[in-house]
Amino acid sequence: MEVVTTDALSRVFAALADPTRRDMVARLSEGDATVSRLAEPYRMSLQAVYKHLRVLEEAGLVSRPRGPQPRPVRLEIEALDLMDTWIERHRDRVERRYRRLDAVLAEMETDGHEEGHEDGRRGRPEGAGHPDDA
Amino acid sequence: MEVVTTDALSRVFAALADPTRRDMVARLSEGDATVSRLAEPYRMSLQAVYKHLRVLEEAGLVSRPRGPQPRPVRLEIEALDLMDTWIERHRDRVERRYRRLDAVLAEMETDGHEEGHEDGRRGRPEGAGHPDDA
DNA sequence: TGGGCTTTCAACCTCAAGGTTGACGAGAGG
DNA sequence: CCTCTCGTCAACCTTGAGGTTGAAAGCCCA
């Protein structure tokens, strides 16, 4: 069966990997809208838009009461927060690591060594390697 | 030829939509690593890992000198910043909007007006509609 | 110089993603 | 009541993503 059960984070990232969907989110961040209203700007069938909407919904980025009448689609920010958390975490780690490296390099420079950093690159000690999880 | 030229943002989001790739980024945020070292924990061929790496590279999330010897893979944070910026922008918009709505609703409640919200959500004025870009 | 290790490319397979068209159902409004 | 519209579902098509195997190439070392 392999019910892939793609994890939440993957769904959110994947949902936002599509420019159309990202644009929808952008527009929804300004205010709710009905499906057909949302579809207006795009050169694709209403059904396609509906599908995109479903992707966003399954990613938790959007919520809406289902039904035939013109019902509004609303943006939910929890999913954005989810991504944000992930990104910040790793970005911080990298930055911390860079800072550490800079310190090490600075110390090495007291030996009178100069770094070839014309593109702002740091050295890479390639240490660590902790196969830690996400 | 259709050089799709997927935009940068799409590439970054898509790159992180895969759990394996996300794990790679997580591990790289702790320190650089060679391709084979990176591949160790995963139960897939080395070539598959290499492909993932290429995706990350094209998304600008990773950089590495190409060549036959064991060369280190390094995480680049600019791409993370790119996403971060996008996310924050829209999240802020939504939050501002929610705050505004809350204010409006609070004001309306002084009139004793009822809202058709069977799912506990806030009201939706559906105004704006600026098909503004991402 | 030959062997082994690493990285890389290429051909192939499978399946899901994004899109299309066609049809259906429920409300709103004449 | 009939109809029009909006949202929804379903079947189908095409392409690209993720994986595999096989093989080529460059560097290091004995």
Q: For the record, what CATH class of the domain at 8-77 in chain A applies? A: Mainly Alpha
Q: Output the CATH topology of the domain at 8-77 in chain A.
A: Arc Repressor Mutant, subunit A
Strand content of chain A: 5-15%
Element pattern of chain A in H and E: HHEHHEEH
Shape of chain A: elongated
Which range best describes the helical content of chain A: under 10%, 10-25%, 25-40%, 40-55%, 55-70% or over 70%? Answer: 40-55%
The strands making up the biggest β-sheet of chain A line up spatially as 1-3-2
Q: Would you kindly provide a written description of the structure presented here, covering whatever features stand out?
A:
The first copy, chain A, has helices at 8-16, 19-28, 35-39, 46-58, 78-109; strands spanning 33-34, 62-63, 72-75. Residues 113-134 of chain A have low confidence and may be disordered. The first copy, chain A, is built from five helices and three strands; from the N terminus they run ααβααββα. Chain A has a domain at 8-77: Arc Repressor Mutant, subunit A (Orthogonal Bundle), CATH 1.10.10. Helices cover 51% and strands 6% of the residues of chain A. Chain A has a three-stranded antiparallel sheet. Chain A is mainly α and 134 residues long. The radius of gyration of chain A is 22 Å and the shape is elongated. At the A-B interface, helix 1, helix 2, strand 1, strand 3 and helix 5 of A face helix 1, helix 2, strand 1, strand 3 and helix 5 of B. Chain A binds a DNA duplex (30 and 30 nucleotides) through helix 4.
